[in-house]
Amino acid sequence: MTRITRSKARYSWQVLLPVLLGLLLDGCTQVNSTRTTKGADEKPQVVATSTIIADLTQKVGGEEIQLTGILKPGADPHVYEPVPADSRFLETADLILYNGYNLEPGIIKLMNAAGSKARKLAVGEVVKPLQLDKGKGEIVPDPHVWGNAENVAAMVQAIRDGLIELSPKDREKYTQRAAQLTAELQQLHSWINQQIRTIPPEKRRLVTTHDAFQYYGRAYGLAIAGTLIGISTEEQPSAQKVQQLVESIKKTGVPAIFAETTINPALIKTVAQEAGVQLAPQQLYSDSIGTKGSNGDSYIKMMTANTRSIVEALGGKYTPFQLKK
């Protein structure tokens, strides 16, 4: 009985094995065929670090690219700690667009260690930086280049060129979108200048949580009268620094100071109370655009929202921004 069972088993496998192998090979052929077809249709994989760069890249790249933004709206690039998914995005990217000037140190470190074959483009570094003193003689480039809309126009051209190099067949589309966005940025630049000029000259002084508005101030005629911390939000202000800022605010006589969307406002609220000045009701967008549906969910909208907040809090006369087609 045992011999008959084993004989039948051997016969069954002799019959089934060729069938199973045939099915397996056919299945492999179908999988490979599917992957080949998908690969031919795949869009270029582009990764942007900051929300500002992601917004600009989407406007230039449109539907011709697959864009992944690492930082989410409201996230602080100075202190962001990458997660495992970020490494996977960087490793599979065809093009990585980042700000540079050490704005996003955690991501830059991961990017350099990821072993990605992607082209890496420091979009912010196409702008000649302001040099700021961190103290003790340490001079560093200020990474907040987007504070000047003209700088952002230069960043848009760099993004356009990077996308064209990645996908030459879409050159015309990238070029047209970049030209349209550049024209909008030129209108924005002129509008901000007009708005700031409505503030009485003696009140054109800006006090914020961290030193992120030097480019904005220099481009549009606002003196940076003081900040709670320096260019990086990693810094922690001492009690002495807080008191010095309070005294400075009292001397300059600014009517209002400003919190920022990416930083806990508790300490700047205390400064406002001790200095006896108003804390502007609308926080400024400094290192990130706003969440979807907010009044700052694109670069242009964040700049118009910031300008409105500054103008209204410092005694100017705000006129809404309207793009001319």
Break the fold down into its secondary structure elements and pairings.
Elements: H1 2-41, E1 45-48, H2 51-61, E2 66-69, H3 84-92, E3 95-98, H4 105-113, E4 119-122, E5 131-133, E6 139-141, H5 149-166, H6 171-196, E7 205-210, H7 214-220, E8 223-229, H8 239-252, E9 256-257, H9 266-275, E10 278-279, H10 299-313
Parallel strand pairs: 1-2, 1-3, 3-4, 7-8, 9-10
Antiparallel strand pairs: 5-6
Helix pairs in contact: 2-5, 2-6, 5-6, 6-10, 8-9
Task: Give an overview in words.
With 325 residues, the chain is of the alpha/beta class. Helices cover 49% and strands 12% of the residues. The protein has helices spanning 2-41, 51-61, 84-92, 105-113, 149-166, 171-196, 214-220, 239-252, 266-275, 299-313, and strands spanning 45-48, 66-69, 95-98, 119-122, 131-133, 139-141, 205-210, 223-229, 256-257, 278-279. The strands form 4 sheets. The protein has a 4-stranded parallel sheet with strand order 2-1-3-4, sandwiched between helices. It has a two-stranded antiparallel sheet with strand order 5-6. A two-stranded parallel sheet has the order 7-8. Helix 4 (105-113) links the parallel strand 3 (95-98) and strand 4.
Tell me the fraction of residues in β-strands, as a range. Answer: 5-15%
Report the C-alpha radius of gyration, rounded.
Answer: 27 Å
Oligomer: single chain
Strand order of the largest sheet: 2-1-3-4
End-to-end C-alpha gap: 91 Å
Tally of helical runs: 10
Order of helices and strands: HEHEHEHEEEHHEHEHEHEH
Shape: globular
